[in-house]
Amino acid sequence: MGQLSLLLSGAAIAALSMPALAQQASGDDGAEGVRADIIVTGEKSARTLQQTPTSIAVVTPEKIERETLITIQDVYNRTANLSETYGSSGFTIRGISNSGVGAGGQADAASVYVDGAPIPKWALYGGPTDMWDVQQVEVLRGPQSTIQGLNALAGGIVITSKEPSLTRWGGDARLLWTEYDGRTFSAAAGGPIIQDELGIRLSAERRNDRGLIRNVTRGGYDDALKSLNLRGKIKWMPQAIPGLEALASYNRVRRDGGYLYEYARTDVPNYFSRRISTGDQPSRGKIDSDIAVLNISYPLADRLKLSSVTSWNRSKVHSRIDTDGTAQDSQAIDNRYDYKTLTQELRLNYDSDRLSGLLGAWYYRRTGSLQQNSRVNIATPTSTIAALLRANGATAAQASFLSTAYAAQLPVIPVTYFAQQPEKVETMALFGDGRFKLTERLTLIGGFRFDHERNRYVAETVTNFNGTLPNANFLGAAYAPVIALMNQGVLGLVSDASSPLAGTSRTFNAFLPKAGISMDWTPDITTAFTVQRAYRSGGSSQNPARAELVPYDPEYSWNYEGSLRSKWLDGHLMLNANIFYMKWKDQQVTAYFGRNAYDYNTVNAAGSHLYGFEVEANANVARGIDLYASVGHVRTKFDNFDLPVGATSTVDLTGTQFPYAPRWTLAGGINARFGPGFTANLNANYRSFVFTGVGQDQGQYEVGGRTVVNGRIGYETAHWSLFAFARNIFNEEYMQYQYEAIHQAILGEPQTVGIGASMHL
User: Fold this and answer.
1) Which H or E run contains 255?
2) How many Cβ atoms from other residues are within 10 Å of residue 4's Cβ?
3) Contact 635, 610 (CB under 8 A)
């Protein structure tokens, strides 16, 4: 953490030297270094960052360029109270995973939007979330259920790509190359087809990465990547219809690369620098993503605007991985996701001196299916076998002897597992959000959302024994009839996990209010306090061992939040902060019921709370030099854990923390311009330790903290630049996950050096 401490200390020194810095930064014209207001749109109203009490971290095009941000995962690692989870499988906001914290339920707890279209969670590790030609990324921390409704209990991430210009033609291009043969080619161009009326912008990015993890069994690299991201946008503002604005976009992604996480062996010397894998099956993830969005807005009156946002996307994902990680053909996962999502929003925005806000209606439909075709090994359930033997007249000693001897012959039950799970989710909502000025300084904040959701979940499972049963005579002829019956019992357990196609439908209604108050103490200092309710929808889950569909209910939370927005030194220093407390109940968790490792389903059994804060600062400390820093802190705790009757789970969540919830996340950096055209950036980010598991013994699943320092130096003119960059400069060796029993781990990115060139016209 030492390198990051130096950066943050620099920011603190800058803040303490206010008079000198103000004089130095102001220059002759008094405007040098003053930071322009950032407009945020994630709450569906165009407000400055300083006018928004919601905790929002904004990534600008300047930050993307200066820090050479390539993927959404780069944003995760550089934002307070935002963190990666398991490889690139997801993220946490304020300690809450985007897929929930209890390992139960199917609805998301946080969402990612690209140009207004929601991106399915199974496509996030390689979908249209790369940073090329992106205008802005907004990380909304805390519940967004009033504005976004579905899948926003923890917050959301809003990515907006660059729009076409209606006044001039221009273009951008970039070339990146790294020492590990990572090559990225990016280009974008556009301009007016009809001056001041119709414009177009086209962008493309091609990535080819050799990979880092060499497969010594199959050859090649497990995490080798090839991807192509194409985007086109058309903007129309017809002069014949003043005020009308239409923006249409289409985004196509084709990605063939590593799985959403990649294991490296830890039982070899120097495994951080010599990354190998031994799986005999491919570890790959293919993503085909197509997104179309149409935005139309028209002013109905001077202060009233009608907007329509229509989005359609299709994601086809094929994920494969060798789960045993050995050269033997033992286990493998093969999942195919094919989903289509349609959204339609109509919104009225009103903005006057005293009253501003919006009213809207929303429709969401997701249809598709998951197909699983896997080979898995289930630990032979000796306790279940012993219980069956005792139920048929065996003594405790006999049952223990026979089940133990049998398990020695068949330690695992190899199973082929095919499952098909179609689903359809439909949501309709009415929502509103507004502000009313009681006085020039005091403002009331209010909002609501009424969500009506109907989801249908269908499941079909076919299981077969995929091995050789023990010889009935392995204990001698006297025991042969019993062993034969035990063999039949094993086949019965496997057969019981099969189920014919069956489905259930669930309907949920949720009312989600929000209330708050804001006070402008001075033109540059504002505080606010808000309270709002959030939810994560319920559904049905399949119990594989019992071949049953089991319903579960929604989760609900209340979030209490205070905020500070402030500017100092004539705008040269910006300091924002949020403090929060959330109470959460009826959380969806996975419960086991004793037959075998696949006798589980989702239940509502947990309650929890969390609290913490975020602080973000930006300072222009001198001509050509600015500092930025952020600190996030969160504490999470399961308060209760009450399983239903019949559950045999031994994991107790009471008093434990959320998985992948770092207590501290820090980031900071410095930008500098010097000489005729030289630029430099040095940045660092720190994440404290996390637990990768849950339960009273989660201490054994701890992954240590890490500090990663990155940098870039270059020379630029008005139209081109040349630069060198380094990621993880000090080669910090860290893990995201470790599976000690089979000597595998997900390792962090090593020190990587690269060069690049860019052009802007």
Assistant:
1) strand 245-258
2) 20
3) yes
